[in-house]
Amino acid sequence: MKQFFRTLFGKISLIFLLLIFILGATEVFISVKSSVNYVCEASQKLNYSLARDLAHRFEPMLKDSLNYNAINSTIKELMVMNPKVDIYLVDKHGHLIAYFEKPEKIKRKMINIEPIRDFVKESSYGSLPIFGDDPLDKTRRKVFSAAPITIGKNEQGYLYVILASARYELAAEGIRGSYILKTSAIALSTILVFGAVVGMIFFFFVTKRLRQVTHTVRAFEQGDYSQRLPVTSDDEVSELAAAFNRMADTIQKNIRDMERNAILRRELIANISHDLRSPLSSIQGYIETVLMKDDRLSKDERKKFLETILKNVTNLSQLVQELFDLSKFDAKESKPNREPFSIADLTQDVVLKFQPIAEGLNIHLVTKLPVNLPFVYADIGMIERVLSNLIDNALRYTESGGKVTVRLERINADCVRISISDTGKGIPEKDLPYVFDRFYRVEKSRTRNSVEGSGLGLAIAKKIVEAHNSIIKVESKLNSGTVFYFDLKTYQKEKDKNPRLFVHRL
Ligand SMILES: Nc1ncnc2c1ncn2[C@@H]1O[C@H](COP(=O)(O)OP(=O)(O)OP(=O)(O)O)[C@@H](O)[C@H]1O
Ligand SMILES: [Mg+2]
């Protein structure tokens, strides 16, 4: 039970029941009070002229001197005939002159005269009920009837008739009390039972959705990240549900990213160790051979072995350098050192560098450069590296007799597009989204027969282009060719630094 009232449903129900009870009790109190007032007003109006009617009975006894015996016996006689009233004779200040009660029962010898004066005024009928002091009780006030009366020669007094005398009231109150209380108890318990049943059903359904929220949040907390809440309307609970769903989406995405990152990190370490181990064991093997066969090796053989060792060492140091560069980009330590330069001149230089290799592979390497290209504003060393990586790939993955085209285009006032296309073997569609991932190679085998490469070239190119606030994109068709392209911002005199003439570095 204690547990029940700790729940929101319990608390709302309890407050609701208390509210019904307080409202019901107030209603009963007001209706009892107004029914008592009604009875008083009705009784005072019905007996409005009672005192005046009785007054003439007393007049003969008050004329010259007060005839107490006669007065008392008249009062007694009247009260026996009508037990509902108490009759008093009062002077103009409110002092009691005559009454029919044992003196010890009289609690006040003087009563407030103001209500009596108000009552005997002509216009008093409209302002009933008027309550006056009850001589039998120090605090209680009651409805009455009163009439002016002349005492002695010229003394003003009043006949004061309390309606519903003490005896009568005791009996009447008992009857009324039990009747009203019984009706109110029935009404109140009906309201309570009805209110409790209807209210609790209603609150049960309202809080049901909150319980569903708790249930879902708990399941989510325990690892079921697919849990979502239904958003059925636009009330506060649905708003809460929608907010929870958004939060759950974000958390689920972050968890997936974290899991993917963990897998990538494991793969990265495996790839690095593989790529370091292969050239290292090759170096080790050749050195051991040279040492073992020392004097049995011909001069040419020794030279060939040492060249292989040197090639592996060069590859190793290049791999380490590339890894180092990538980690610098990741740590945002490598920032492009921008300057204005001629992209056309740079492209020609790089292509010139690759021309002998292309000729050796029997690949046609051409440039398409429009005249009057504006300067671009970028890091010349970094862009040279991107161009080299892309041309290197194009040559590497294109068969003999193919063609590689390096094209520059001005696509709008602000941008120059650089694209490197080839007629090579292309990249399968499923691999396209991953070619920029580090160590990703379409040809997974890392044997000596396959095209060599560590799978870092495009990852570095992507990082460099992104550092220039641009995006590198790829389009490819299997067995017909691939194109990589990215845009560079042109040099704007007002915004960027002064131009510097491109210096040929070859
Ligand atoms: N022009 C291209 N045509 C076909 N496949 C390509 C082309 N360029 C890249 N690829 C594919 O994308 C993969 C990733 O290229 P990336 O340059 O990152 O690595 P790599 O060339 O294998 O090694 P390296 O780090 O030495 O450049 C390549 O292994 C290759 O499978
Ligand atoms: Mg490459």
Automatic annotation (TrEMBL):
Q: Transmembrane region positions?
A: 12-32, 185-206
What's any GO biological process attached to this entry?
cellular response to phosphate starvation
Residues of the HAMP domain? 204-256
What is the protein's major site of localization? membrane
Q: Which InterPro entries match?
A: BphY/WalK/GraS-like (IPR050351), HAMP_dom (IPR003660), HATPase_C_sf (IPR036890), HATPase_dom (IPR003594), His_kinase_dom (IPR005467), HisK_dim/P_dom (IPR003661), HisK_dim/P_sf (IPR036097), Sig_transdc_His_kin-like_C (IPR004358)
Q: Where is the Histidine kinase domain?
A: 271-492
Q: GO terms for CC?
A: plasma membrane
Which terms are listed as keywords in the entry?
ATP-binding, Cell membrane, Kinase, Membrane, Nucleotide-binding, Phosphoprotein, Transferase, Transmembrane, Transmembrane helix, Two-component regulatory system
SMART domains per UniProt: HAMP, HATPase_c, HisKA
List the catalysed reactions. Answer: ATP + protein L-histidine = ADP + protein N-phospho-L-histidine
Which terms in the Gene Ontology molecular function aspect does this entry carry? Answer: ATP binding; phosphoprotein phosphatase activity; phosphorelay sensor kinase activity
Where can this protein be found?
Answer: Cell membrane
Q: Which domain of life is it from?
A: Bacteria
What EC identifiers does the entry list?
2.7.13.3
What is the recorded name of this protein?
Answer: histidine kinase
